[in-house]
């Protein structure tokens, strides 16, 4: 079953993260939607994701995952050596989420912000939900 990643389409770091995942997901396991898009908003609502969630969101079946848990679950499906990052699950979740939150809180300042969401290249457009 494919999983959906909801991301901040205005965030340069988030955009680069999506591109990173696409190139390391040879089986096209993940689909993507911007949190700012109509479909992204509807999916977040369908999964009862709290509106103020400041995180990448992984939709899997009937569940959603955020922060470090989402990252680790995404890494499980990526090509080697990136799936090895799941070994960091040994850290207590509050530490992993603290690191995630620190980056998330500073992502615009560190990496910049776009005025609009990216337009996917033709060869990956089918991986983005509209």
From TrEMBL:
Database matches in InterPro entries: DCC1-like, DCC_oxidoreductase
Record-level Gene Ontology MF annotations: protein-disulfide reductase activity
Top-rank taxon: Bacteria
Pfam name, any one: DCC1-like
Protein name stated in the entry: Thiol-disulfide oxidoreductase
Species this protein is from: Halalkalibacter wakoensis JCM 9140
């Amino acid at each position: 079953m494919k999983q959906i990643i909801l991301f901040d389409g205005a965030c340069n770091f988030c955009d680069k993260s999506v591109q990173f995942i696409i190139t390391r997901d040879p089986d096209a396991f993940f689909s993507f939607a911007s949190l700012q898009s109509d479909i992204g908003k509807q999916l977040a609502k369908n999964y009862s994701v709290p509106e103020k969630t400041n995180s990448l969101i992984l939709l899997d079946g009937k569940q959603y995952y955020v922060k470090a848990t989402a990252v680790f679950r995404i890494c499980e499906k990526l090509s080697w050596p990136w799936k090895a990052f799941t070994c960091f699950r040994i850290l207590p979740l509050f530490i992993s989420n603290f690191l995630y939150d620190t980056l998330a809180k500073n992502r615009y300042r560190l990496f910049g912000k776009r005025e609009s969401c990216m337009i996917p290249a033709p060869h990956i457009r089918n991986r983005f939900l509209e």
